[in-house]
Design brief:
By secondary structure, this protein is mainly alpha-helical. Helices cover 68% and strands 0% of the residues. The protein folds into four domains: 42 residues; 253 residues, no CATH class; 139 residues, no CATH class; 146 residues, Serine Threonine Protein Phosphatase 5, Tetratricopeptide repeat (Alpha Horseshoe), CATH 1.25.40. Helix 5 packs across helix 8, helix 21 packs antiparallel against helix 22 and helix 31 runs antiparallel to helix 32.
């Protein structure tokens, strides 16, 4: 009724008298209602587009993180790229008490708790996407606070920086969560701070102290944001100076007096990378920290920005040779209402290009290969190796590929399809390259061979160097089971049970040990015990006399197929084909239906080196191997020098052969020499 009366009075005011007919009142009501609906639609249309745009961008963000970046590899890189002790999490009071006893400990505890969930691919991608969305929402809130128009481009800057920070597969979670704490406290301050100068100042100091206690020195970005907001934005220089002073004094008051820190420890975290993040990524982190104060100062700098924008449009017009084109392009780039879908596509494409260019593909390849091998997904590991074969030359990758080839039954057939270098043994790991996963890799290799005590020593080296990494605890438990020490195995399984994502595995293994302390029903345990060297000393390894160690394993258990195959690999690598030929009589023992290709090639190499006729009927040789041998030796005979012969052999597709390795000292080259 009031709405009808208001509309009637509006018509009366315009005309100066009462309406002549009731239909005029109805017409007036419908016009005003239409105007209200139009205004509402104009308000809702940008909001609806913004929601669609946000949904599309972060859906693509999630898919990229899940399928390309792969947070499982970020988690697997702990111990290789990232030190484990900075992200180790165990349920119980001890870890929590250790964290809360220092500034920033609460954020560190949260990072430790969240980090293991990166190991679940879809869940890790969801966590990272949620954190990125929070930064985008904060940018929107800051623009609303300063009365700026919400821009489509500016709100996606922090998510793209977050992708760049993860491109090296380190873990910037602590740094990022500290920033979110500072941003959240700033929004609370902006919403809840009273107008009274005294109470507002007290509130500011209280939140600054809370930011320092919760997030550590990086929480001091809160008073920095508050100083920008109070001084340039609101014009309150006194409160701005107070915020800056609190950022300078609080670390001394709280860090030194309350937490008993040194002056350096109290202040150094503000502009230094947190543990778990590579120094090369700190530039991205610094840009991310400065991003939000710059958004706040956008209102002050807007006149300058508009002047620069006009200048750019004029330059665009000159370049285009047509002023109208420059104006049209300027309107397209500036206005959010027109062609927003094309702009969204451009933003997503630009974000994808930046993320892809900052992704370390070689690191991703090595981590993915190691990830699959550690979980005994051998066929997935070989498929990964085949995707970037020239990167297999690194020792860690070579060890993984050799293990995957052995378990896939292809070691004697396709070993030289991958890069190999004469005189370089991938299982001799230099001390500088030893990290937790290198020790674990060695330990798994020794355990399967039968050198159980040596495997135990390597596993303890990994445990001592990095802490209770779940993969190391589980592996040590298996070693103790193989050694018939179930009580020692239970110690490691109980520690494993305190890891959030490994409780079920630990509980299942403990239940099985209670029922069968020796796990005689487990075929893998039985196999490892059969291969175990009876006089296994801790000093016994493959670092010294490799041939002697492998032969000792075969003497202990003539059915140790792994020892036999790696002994053959040793002979092939040091170019002793005669030893390979002598060992061919043992193939039947191990169930070979035919002679592996590289062993056949070794027969021809042996005949060539000893100047004896090529064998014809003594061995079951494939016709293809004979054809390739003839082709290779013909190339050697026709070539004038070594380099010419090498190039011709590569072009003939013989670089994956043992012939090529013996004469040129490398293998796995393609026609481009990679």
């Amino acid at each position: 009724m009031r709405a009808i009366l208001a509309d009637t009075m509006a018509v009366w005011d315009r005309r100066g008298n009462l309406p002549n007919h009731p239909t005029e009142i109805c017409r007036s009501n419908s016009v005003n209602a239409s105007q209200r609906d139009t205004a509402t639609n104009l308000e809702l249309a940008p909001l609806g587009r913004r929601r669609i745009e946000t949904g599309i961008f972060f859906l693509l963000f999630y898919l990229y993180v899940w399928l390309v970046l792969d947070t499982r590899l970020v988690h697997h890189a702990i111990g290789i790229v990232t030190p484990y002790h900075a992200l180790a999490f165990t349920t119980g009071w001890a870890v929590f008490h250790d964290c809360v006893s220092r500034p920033g400990g609460l954020v560190e505890y949260l990072a430790r708790f969240v980090s293991p969930f990166y190991g679940v691919g879809w869940l890790g991608a969801a966590i990272l996407t949620g954190l990125a969305w929070c930064t985008s929402a904060v940018v929107d809130a800051l623009q609303q606070i300063t009365g700026q128009t919400r821009g489509m481009v500016i709100r996606y800057g922090p998510p793209v920086l977050l992708l760049a920070m993860h491109g090296k597969y380190d873990q910037p979670l602590t740094t990022f969560l500290s920033l979110l704490v500072a941003l959240a406290l700033f929004l609370i301050y902006q919403q809840l701070a009273l107008r009274n100068a005294v109470t507002r100042g007290v509130f500011l100091l209280a939140l600054s102290g809370a930011a320092y206690i919760i997030a550590g020195p990086k929480g001091l970005w809160f008073p920095i944001l508050a100083a920008v907001y109070e001084w340039p934005i609101n014009g309150h220089a006194g409160r701005g100076v107070m915020a800056l002073v609190s950022a300078l004094l609080l670390p001394g008051l709280l860090g030194i007096l309350l937490f008993r820190l040194s002056v350096r420890e109290a202040y150094q975290g503000l502009l230094q990378p947190a543990e778990g993040m590579a120094e090369g990524d700190w530039l991205y982190a610094l840009v991310l920290y400065l991003y939000f104060p710059m958004v706040l100062t956008g209102a002050v700098l807007r006149p300058l920005a508009e002047t620069c924008w006009r200048s750019c449009r004029e330059q665009l017009a000159v370049i285009a040779g047509n002023p109208s084109r420059g104006e049209s392009l300027g309107r397209f780039l500036r206005r959010g209402e027109s062609r927003w879908s094309i702009k969204l596509a451009g933003i997503c494409l630009a974000a994808g290009v930046i993320a892809w260019s900052t992704l370390h593909a070689d690191t991703r390849f090595a981590l993915l290969l190691d990830f699959y091998c550690q979980r005994e997904r051998w066929h997935d590991a070989l498929r990964t190796a085949d995707s970037r074969p020239h990167n297999v030359a690194y020792d860690r990758n070579q060890r993984n590929v050799l293990m995957a080839l052995y378990h896939a039954g292809r070691l004697g057939d396709t070993m030289f399809s991958y890069p190999q270098a004469a005189g370089k043994d991938p299982f001799l790991v230099p001390q500088a390259e030893r990290d937790v996963h290198a020790y674990l890799q060695e330990s798994r290799f020794y355990l399967e061979l039968g050198l159980v005590n040596r495997a135990e020593k390597c596993a303890y080296e990994a445990l001592a160097g990095t802490g209770d990494l779940p993969a190391v605890l589980e592996h040590l438990a298996m070693i103790q089971i193989v050694k018939d020490q179930p009580e020692a195995a239970k110690v490691f399984l109980n520690a494993l049970g305190k890891k959030p994502l490994h409780r079920r595995v630990a509980a299942d293994m403990l239940e099985r040990l209670e029922a069968d302390p020796r796990l005689e029903s487990d075929p893998r345990v039985r196999q490892l015990r059969r291969c175990r060297l009876s006089e296994d000393r801790v000093s016994a390894s493959l670092d010294g006399n490799r041939e002697e160690s492998l032969r000792a394993l075969l003497d202990q258990n003539p059915d140790n197929r792994m020892a036999f195959e790696f002994l053959m690999v040793h002979y092939l690598r040091i170019v002793r084909p005669g030893q390979v030929v002598e060992a061919l009589s043992q193939l039947e023992r191990f169930g070979y239906s035919e002679i592996p290709r590289h062993f056949q090639e070794a027969i021809f190499v042996h005949a060539s080196l000893t100047n004896t006729p090529f064998p014809r009927n003594e061995y079951r040789l494939d016709r293809e191997t004979q054809t390739r041998a003839t082709a290779f030796f013909n190339i050697l005979g026709r070539s004038s020098d070594r380099e010419e012969a090498k190039q011709r052999a590569v072009e003939a597709g013989l670089s994956d052969s043992y012939f090529f390795y013996c004469w040129f000292g490398v293998s796995g080259w393609n026609s481009h020499g990679e």
